[in-house]
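Incident log, support desk, overnight shift.

02:14 A customer reports that sequence design results differ from what the structure should imply. Their input is reproduced verbatim below. On-call engineer (initials T.W.) acknowledged and began investigating.
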């Protein structure tokens, strides 16, 4: 836990590198978007969509893909069906964790955004209209990313958008250097 009372979690292909103490089920569920918002008596959790090693673009032959759905894509689902949707979504997340392809996942809170300008000024922005939830997977091909998107679409009962995250060799090198220092 950091000095500010928050816990930072790293979930992804290197989840086996986490210690047992870092695998708190409540924290993992929260980070994976399986629980919404803070729990009474617990600190706010911060999800780090990070890795202990650099993205595989190039050297490992894999690419990260953003799989997402719109802010109102699940509005058609009756409230009484949401537990079944959550159970199905959790099952797909567990499959992705077991397959070693999950980088991060979660739903965005239905709250106003904060806009931070280049001079550091913070203003209130609009309510989210673009993305309601997201999953990032790291897989060898677009076809495999589309297969994961299809599983998520069935579980969440809504269409998914799939986009490759572009390679950044300079970022990969920065992450490699950080790993060497550990």
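02:41 Re-run completed on a clean worker. Output:
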């Amino acid at each position: 836990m950091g000095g500010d009372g928050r816990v930072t979690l790293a979930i992804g292909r290197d989840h086996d590198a986490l210690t047992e103490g870092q695998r708190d089920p409540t924290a993992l569920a929260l980070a994976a978007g399986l629980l919404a918002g803070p729990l009474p008596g617990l600190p706010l959790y911060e999800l780090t969509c990070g890795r202990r090693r650099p993205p595989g673009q190039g050297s490992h032959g894999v690419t990260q893909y953003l799989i997402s759905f719109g802010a109102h894509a699940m509005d058609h689902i009756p409230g009484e069906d949401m537990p079944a949707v959550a159970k199905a979504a959790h099952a797909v997340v567990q499959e992705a964790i077991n397959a070693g392809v999950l980088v991060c996942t979660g739903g965005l809170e239905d709250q106003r955004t904060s806009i931070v300008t280049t001079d550091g000024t913070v203003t209130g922005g609009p309510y989210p209209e673009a993305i309601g939830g997201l999953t990032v997977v790291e897989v060898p091909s677009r076809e495999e990313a589309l297969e994961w998107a299809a599983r998520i679409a069935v579980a969440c009962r809504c269409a998914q958008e799939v986009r490759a995250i572009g390679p950044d060799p300079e970022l990969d090198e920065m992450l490699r250097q950080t790993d060497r220092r550990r």
